[in-house]
């Protein structure tokens, strides 16, 4: 039986079926940090994305998981019931711990002192050895809380930095692997994800207006709004743990979810 995994995230909706990966920026979590509700516009964008995915999914057994925005929203469970009814998917709202552990499974074997970093729209997952945590720190959340100006002011950026630093736990790690949207986008822009390259990209992007960021070669225009907040989190993680660089892994939460579907299909 063919199997598929869907990740309904705060900033994007993603599909993995076989070796095929798709991602569409749907901004489901827009405004959720303040209102604690998914908006009709955000819900409609996710449904449109899933309609586009449907042809690729076909008759594959599909598990759709939801993360930060949906677990924060008062109407999150209702939203997921609607997805199940409309598309016939199995659905699950992941806790932060589940999201972190499935990301670890998806990435595969890494060293005990290697940090796995997933900067999402609403949360950031950190996994190292037996340690894992999910922080209420994401590119969209940070942008909506602090980065109001266009481009953001120095005071706004400093406030966002203070927030990130206050939430990062004490860890001792020697290396890092980053996954998913923010890190993938920085990898596209900088290729080598050294501390210097990430800092350069952050300073460059933060100096531009939203309209100018939308025109940056290699940057998905739909990610332009939240990329400064995301890049800031990546830089602060590298700083906090004394890391000079991080690797990028295409394998991530989706691969962990796909493994669950594959194993259940074999029973």
Structure description:
This protein is an alpha/beta fold and 267 residues long. A hairpin with a 4-residue loop joins β6 (114-119) and β7. The model has no long low-confidence stretch (mean pLDDT 95). Helices cover 48% and strands 19% of the residues. It has a five-stranded mixed sheet.
The total count of strands amounts to 10
Arithmetic mean pLDDT: 95
SSE succession: EEEHHEHHEHEEEHHEHHHHEH
Tally of contiguous helical segments? 12
| Biggest sheet features | 5 strands, mixed
Structural class: alpha/beta
Low-confidence stretches: none
Instruction: Name the overall outline.
Output: globular
Neighbour order of strands in the largest sheet: 3-2-1-4-5
Work out the radius of gyration: 18 Å
Strand content: 15-25%
N-to-C CA distance: 12 Å
Q: Provide the helix percentage.
A: 40-55%
Provide the descriptors you would attach to this structure in a database record.
267 residues, alpha/beta, five-stranded mixed beta sheet, 10 strands, 19% strand, globular
Short description:
The chain has 12 helices and 10 strands. The chain is of the alpha/beta class and 267 residues long. Strands 3-2-1-4-5 form a 5-stranded mixed sheet. Strands 8-7-6-9-10 form a 5-stranded mixed sheet, sandwiched between helices.
């Amino acid at each position: 039986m063919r199997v598929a995994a869907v990740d309904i995230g705060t900033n994007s909706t993603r599909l993995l079926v076989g070796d095929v990966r798709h991602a569409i920026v749907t901004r489901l979590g827009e405004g959720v940090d303040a209102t604690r509700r998914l908006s009709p516009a955000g819900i409609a964008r996710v449904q449109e994305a899933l309609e586009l995915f449907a042809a690729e999914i076909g008759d594959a057994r599909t598990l759709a998981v939801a993360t930060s925005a949906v677990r924060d929203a008062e109407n999150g469970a209702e939203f997921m019931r609607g997805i199940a009814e409309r598309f016939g998917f199995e659905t699950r709202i992941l806790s932060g711990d589940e999201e972190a552990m499935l990301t670890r499974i998806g990435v595969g074997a890494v060293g005990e002192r290697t940090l796995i970093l997933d900067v999402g729209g609403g949360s950031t997952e950190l996994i190292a050895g037996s340690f894992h945590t999910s922080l209420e720190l994401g590119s969209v959340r940070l942008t909506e809380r602090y980065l109001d100006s266009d481009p953001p002011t120095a005071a706004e950026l400093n406030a966002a930095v203070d927030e990130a630093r206050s939430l990062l736990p004490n860890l001792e790690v020697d290396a890092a692997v980053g996954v998913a949207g923010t890190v993938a986008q920085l990898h596209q822009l900088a290729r080598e994800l050294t501390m210097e390259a990430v800092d350069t990209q952050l300073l460059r992007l933060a100096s531009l207006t939203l309209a100018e960021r939308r025109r940056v070669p290699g940057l998905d225009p739909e990610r332009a709004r939240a990329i400064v907040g995301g890049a800031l989190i990546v830089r602060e993680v590298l700083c906090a743990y004394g890391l000079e660089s991080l690797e990028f892994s295409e394998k991530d939460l989706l691969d962990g979810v796909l493994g669950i579907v594959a194993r259940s299909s074999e029973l």
